[in-house]
């Protein structure tokens, strides 16, 4: 196995190391020992053989701001393989440092007009073709020891109300479980990746602050360890990117940002599902199915996302569309994922508004849950 020294002075593998999994139960035990978490109940579990590939952040594996179709793959993997990303970069090419003032950091921010995220990838999944879906399973997401929340002027949900920029730093506890906001207010960490994307349609680079059926800037609070995200494929190999690490965030992210950080240990499993039509990103957690919609405003984001959810659930369950509509009205919960009314931006693009709809598994029988799962995971040979 070849190793190299990364920018943080730590040795990291660049070759893949093969791990054997003896059936689903043994695979889960190995995940628990090696990654610190188990996949969600009912989610795909590793079977047969899997490989772990380590992708170290450097100038060849990170594109700041853009999802570039011309970038060479950071790793080429088989379906079911795991990618380990040690010591991921902070936004803006890992240049921010703890305690920098807003004025010290502002020149860094302005150097990257295509967007702030240090996008890692792309990951090429062998056999992935347009019309397929890649399942992105977060096995481990352990953040570094600190992060920040910031709000430049003229951004967020209330751009008219604040005439000074805001920047607040946070230290995390040793177990990466909590951070103190102020005396008497403590935040429970809920770390995950804010940006996952397959390469968007077309042959031009796309800013990662944008979003669509391919994913992009999702900022979904629920995408943490033990959850899965399903994204459609638009290019051979899928070409999957990730970035924009969060330690915690609220629905809406109304002041523009989450608690921004990086990951000292990020492990993602990528599973290919053949011939699965999917019009919007779908996520699975241990407790919910979630669909994400985008639009020029929250109204349009909800309408587009809901139509996609009705198409998926009515087909998967062979349910009349009006019944699916009623099910989502009675049991579903629709929330603002991200809401902003920016008056000004240094970036070349303005992202769409985002809504997500959540259907609790508690109202679904095991058979119905399995049918929803099978609708996304069909065509995956050897999957358990």
Model description:
The chain is of the alpha+beta class. The protein is 17% helix and 35% strand. It has a single domain, classed as Acetamidase/Formamidase-like domains (Jelly Rolls), CATH 2.60.120. The chain contains 5 helices and 26 strands. The two termini are 30 Å apart. 46% of the residues are buried. The N terminus is likely disordered. One of its GO terms (molecular function) is hydrolase activity, acting on carbon-nitrogen (but not peptide) bonds, in linear amides. It comes from Caenimonas aquaedulcis. InterPro entries: FmdA_AmdA, TAT_signal.
CATH class membership: Mainly Beta
> Main sheet: which strands, in order across?
3-4-8-22-10-19-23-24-26-25
Helicity, in percent?
10-25%
Rounded to an integer in angstroms, the radius of gyration calculated over CA atoms is: 20 Å
Largest sheet entry: 10 strands, mixed
Morphology call: globular
Count of extended strands: 26
Note the beta-strand portion.
35-45%
Q: Given the structure, what is the number of helices?
A: 5
Low-confidence stretches: 1-44
Remind me, CATH topology?
A: Jelly Rolls
CATH homology superfamily: Acetamidase/Formamidase-like domains
Coarse structural class: alpha+beta
Nearest-integer average pLDDT: 88
Number of domains: 1
Q: Which CATH architecture is right?
A: Sandwich
End-to-end C-alpha gap: 30 Å
């Amino acid at each position: 196995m070849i190793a190299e020294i990364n920018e943080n002075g730590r040795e990291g593998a660049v070759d893949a190391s093969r791990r054997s999994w003896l059936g689903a139960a043994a695979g889960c035990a190995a995940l628990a020992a090696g990654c610190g978490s188990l996949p969600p109940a009912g989610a795909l579990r590793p079977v047969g053989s899997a490989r772990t590939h380590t992708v170290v952040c450097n100038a060849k594996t990170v594109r700041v701001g853009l999802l570039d179709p011309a970038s060479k793959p950071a790793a080429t993997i088989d379906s079911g393989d795991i990618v380990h990303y040690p010591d991921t970069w902070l936004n803006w090419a890992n240049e921010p440092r703890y305690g920098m003032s807003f004025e010290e950091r502002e020149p860094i921010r302005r150097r990257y007009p295509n967007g702030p995220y240090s996008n890692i990838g792309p990951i090429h999944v062998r056999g992935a073709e347009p019309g397929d879906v890649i399942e992105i399973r977060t096995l481990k997401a352990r953040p570094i020891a600190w992060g920040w929340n910031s709000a430049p002027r003229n951004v967020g949900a209330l751009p008219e109300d604040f005439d000074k920029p805001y920047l607040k730093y946070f230290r995390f506890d040793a177990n990466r479980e909590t951070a103190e906001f102020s005396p008497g207010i403590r935040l429970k960490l809920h770390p995950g990746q804010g940006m996952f994307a397959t390469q968007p349609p077309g042959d031009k680079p796309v800013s990662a602050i944008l979003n669509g059926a391919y994913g992009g800037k999702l900022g979904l609070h629920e995408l943490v360890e033990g959850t899965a995200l399903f994204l459609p494929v638009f290019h051979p190999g899928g070409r999957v990117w990730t970035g924009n690490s969060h330690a915690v965030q609220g629905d809406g992210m109304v002041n523009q940002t989450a608690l921004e950080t990086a990951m000292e240990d990020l492990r993602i499993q990528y599973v290919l599902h053949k011939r699965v039509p999917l019009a919007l990103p779908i996520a699975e957690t241990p407790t919910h199915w979630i669909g994400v919609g985008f639009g020029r405003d929250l109204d349009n984001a909800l309408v587009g996302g809901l139509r996609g959810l009705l198409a998926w659930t009515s087909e998967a369950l062979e349910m009349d569309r009006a019944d699916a509509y009623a099910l989502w009205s009675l049991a579903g919960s629709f929330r603002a994922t991200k809401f902003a009314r920016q008056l000004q931006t240094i970036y070349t693009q303005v992202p769409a508004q985002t809504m997500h709809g959540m259907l609790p598994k508690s109202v679904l029988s095991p058979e119905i849950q399995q049918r929803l799962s099978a609708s996304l995971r069909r065509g995956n040979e050897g999957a358990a």
